[in-house]
From TrEMBL:
Pathway linked to the protein: Amino-acid degradation; L-valine degradation
Keywords: Branched-chain amino acid catabolism, NAD, Oxidoreductase
Keyword Oxidoreductase annotated: yes
Residues in 6-phosphogluconate dehydrogenase NADP-binding domain copies: 4-160
Organism encoding this protein: Rhodococcus pseudokoreensis
Sequence ranges assigned to domain 3-hydroxyisobutyrate dehydrogenase-like NAD-binding in this UniProt record: 163-288
Descriptive protein name: 3-hydroxyisobutyrate dehydrogenase
Higher taxonomy: Bacteria, Bacillati, Actinomycetota, Actinomycetes, Mycobacteriales
């Protein structure tokens, strides 16, 4: 069944997601502040509105993909009063759990339904329609959102109450960030010890060191031809985004009194890497920072 969707935030992630909805036969009315994003959206079959408010007036569902919690809450203040009563709001931004729950409360107070549905899979997954969605909200609202999420992703998991989608996202990405640092440190150590990258990969990928950071997003060129390391670390998932997500995780760790030395240290390392100019590279490029600092340590 065709649904009319308002899509706000048509950038690197939102643009392909909206395009996949159009391909599936849904009517998408979109808006973005960037003219280039709007130009591409038109090519993808999206009807471009003059403003965010206009984009949500006559739609059944509103999907947002924005940079931060302050952007989501600021936009909700504008668009919630303009939407039809009972509109379903799906926020696929990655934001703080507290902000996600505040957005749910605001939507409910305005007479709407909502779920938080952050994603994993990067631009490649957004383009291919293979994203993983982690969803927080009531069971009924999850079921209402799921048909659209199924178009944009291959895995949709209901994580429980409002905000729990964001909770799952930051926990998952904390695992990923720590894993990538561990894998990178192991490769640099192997190099120092005279072990080839291929030999280490062949052992670890078939032993207890096996993980996604190694077998899919391997940080050294060669062993996994499709990894960003073989394309000058052009980002599938940018280090700047990992810095953001680990910052959210660190904030949650501190707020909830969790003793998590590795999670906090990973946040510090990616913050430093981002600040030093690595934010535009794939997050696996942190291996180069580790390698360079290891060389400096010998001098």
């Amino acid at each position: 069944m065709s649904t009319t969707v308002g899509f706000l935030g048509l950038g690197h992630m939102g643009g392909p997601m909206a395009a996949n909805l159009v391909k599936a036969g849904h009517t998408v009315v979109g808006f973005d502040l960037a003219p280039a994003a709007l130009e591409q959206a038109v090519k993808d079959g999206v009807t471009v509105a003059d403003s965010a408010v206009e984009a949500v007036r006559e739609v059944d569902v509103v999907i947002t993909m924005l940079p931060s919690g302050k952007h989501v809450l600021g936009l909700y203040a504008e668009i919630l009063p303009a939407a039809k009563p009972g509109t379903l709001f799906i926020d696929s931004s990655t934001i703080d759990v507290a902000d996600a729950r505040a957005a749910h409360d605001e939507a409910a107070a305005a007479g709407h339904r909502s779920v938080d549905a952050p994603v994993s899979g990067g631009v490649v997954g957004a383009t291919a329609g293979t994203l993983a969605f982690m969803v927080g909200g009531t069971a009924d609202d999850f079921e209402s959102a799921k048909p659209l999420l199924d178009v944009m992703g291959k895995k949709v998991v209901h994580c429980g109450d409002p905000g729990n989608g964001q909770a799952a996202k930051i926990c998952n990405n904390m695992i990923l960030g720590v894993s990538m640092i561990a894998v990178s440190e192991a490769f640099v150590l192997g190099e120092k010890l005279g072990l080839s990258n291929q030999a280490l990969f062949d052992v670890a990928s078939n032993a207890s060191g096996q993980c996604w950071a190694l077998t899919t997003n391997c940080p050294v060129p060669g062993p996994v031809p499709t990894s960003p390391a073989n394309n000058d670390y052009q980002p599938g998932f940018a280090a700047a985004l990992m810095d953001k997500d680990l910052g959210l995780a660190a904030n949650a760790l501190k707020t909830n009194g969790v003793e998590a030395e590795l999670g906090l240290r990973a946040a510090e390392l990616y913050s430093r890497f981002h600040a030093a100019g690595g934010g535009g590279q794939d997050f696996s490029a942190i291996i180069n920072d580790i390698r360079e600092r290891s060389t400096e340590g010998e001098q």
